[in-house]
Specification:
Elements (H helix, E strand, L loop, with lengths): L1 E5 L5 E5 L10 E11 L1 H5 L17 E8 L11 E4 L9 H4 L9 H6 L9 E5 L3 E3 L6 H4 L2 H14 L6 E5 L3 H12 L3 E6 L2 H9 L4 E4 L5 H8 L5 E6 L6 H11 E9 L14 H6 L3 E4 L5 E2 L2 E2 H10 L9 E6 L3 H9 L1 H4 L3 E5 L1
Parallel strand pairs: 8-9, 8-11, 9-10, 11-12, 12-13, 16-17
Antiparallel strand pairs: 1-2, 3-4, 3-6, 3-17, 4-5, 5-7, 14-15
Helix pairs in contact: 5-6, 5-11
């Protein structure tokens, strides 16, 4: 099969590699149709990481089932599916209660199997596949991983009707967070430094959009909230922005409010100075949110799919660019340079 392999300098070479074989009777082989580039992928772009050299990466995808193991009953050849790429070891206490997003071995396990979507084919356990309705496109379905991340965060937040929410970052996760907060009955402020992303946020129903590079964001948040601050702030930028955006999130949050950390950190120790005395005296709760899994008896991926299928969440508006797999380096450049290109979600047609 054709696959994009990481190089020593963190870019990609598209080469021919062996097609994966179904390893267990309850697994399937999927022909990938669309995969996406997310913030996590961009944090590895042009970064020297010897452990990833000549590896296939990527974890947002939709495709068609082409082969199934003898014990598979929930899908069949020809089915259109979205694949959930969070796969734990299946034996730890967290996997046992469907909190596999917290599995201590999550990344080593998923990187060997389901997190390899920059390629033509992928293997996965049948239970990680969700059938797509005919009216949900492969491109829309490739956004469901992102939507599920935001859904997990919104559920952890304990959001209530008429809350005021501040979302930092108008990328795919932040724009999903915006839509979910609006669905929950909240008023939503969203900040970013890219006007094209903020324009999409406005079209999706944001009550206030702020370009924090051009405007005094804290002043505007306080004006909107009668000087109290937001009930909940969602940090959705992550990565190298975190030393700036996490303190911003705390400054936007009212006394007794909550800050939900959705954006991803880089590996290792990261020192971020915070006003800890203020956080303590104001009893501001800091809530880390990690990927997604189940919420009660419900798969958060399936919940996100249902919201898109019912028209309650808009995935189409977030899809700004599409490239062929052979153009993956150009696609990454486009996704990275969003101030110039206006990129939000960049899809790769496989």
């Amino acid at each position: 099969m054709k696959a994009a392999l990481k190089t020593e300098n963190g870019e990609f070479n598209v080469e021919e590699v062996d097609t994966p074989e179904i390893p267990h009777p309850d697994w399937v082989l999927v022909r990938i149709k669309v995969t996406g580039i997310c913030g996590t992928d961009l944090r590895h772009w042009k970064k020297e990481e010897p452990e990833l050299v000549h590896k296939v990466t990527g974890h947002e995808l939709a495709g068609k089932v082409v082969d199934v193991g003898p014990k598979v009953t929930n899908v069949k050849r020809g089915d259109r599916v979205v694949v959930e790429t969070l796969l734990g070891d299946g034996i730890c206490d967290w996997c046992r209660v469907q909190q596999y997003n917290l599995c201590p071995n999550l990344y080593p396990v998923r990187m060997e199997t389901v997190s390899r979507s920059f390629a033509e084919y992928l293997i996965a356990p049948a239970e990680k596949l969700h059938l797509l309705p005919d009216h949900v496109s492969y491109q829309e379905a490739a956004l469901l991983d992102t939507f599920s991340v935001s859904l997990h965060a919104i559920q952890l937040s304990g959001i209530k009707l008429n809350d005021t929410v501040a979302v930092i970052g108008a990328g795919p996760i932040g724009l999903a967070q915006l839509q979910l907060a609006k669905l929950s009955g909240a008023d939503v402020i969203i900040t970013d430094v890219v006007d094209s992303s903020l324009n999409i946020a406005r079209e999706l129903g944001a009550d206030l959009v702020i370009n924090s590079k051009k405007e005094d964001a804290l002043k505007k948040v306080m004006e909107f909230t009668d000087s109290k601050g937001a009930d909940i702030a969602f940090e959705c930028a992550g990565g190298t922005s975190m030393p700036e955006t996490l303190p911003q999130a705390i400054s936007y949050t009212r006394i007794g409010g909550k800050v939900v950390i959705v954006g991803g950190f880089d590996t290792g120790e990261i020192a971020i100075p915070l006003e800890w005395q203020h956080i303590q005296k104001a009893e501001i709760k800091i809530i880390p949110s990690a990927s997604y899994s189940f919420w009660g008896i419900h798969s958060e991926m399936k919940m996100s799919l249902d919201l898109v299928a019912k028209g309650k969440m808009n995935a189409k508006k977030l899809i700004t660019h599409s490239f062929k797999l052979d153009e993956i380096n150009k696609a990454f450049e486009t996704a990275q340079d969003k101030e110039r290109t206006g990129a939000v979600f960049v899809a790769l047609e496989v």
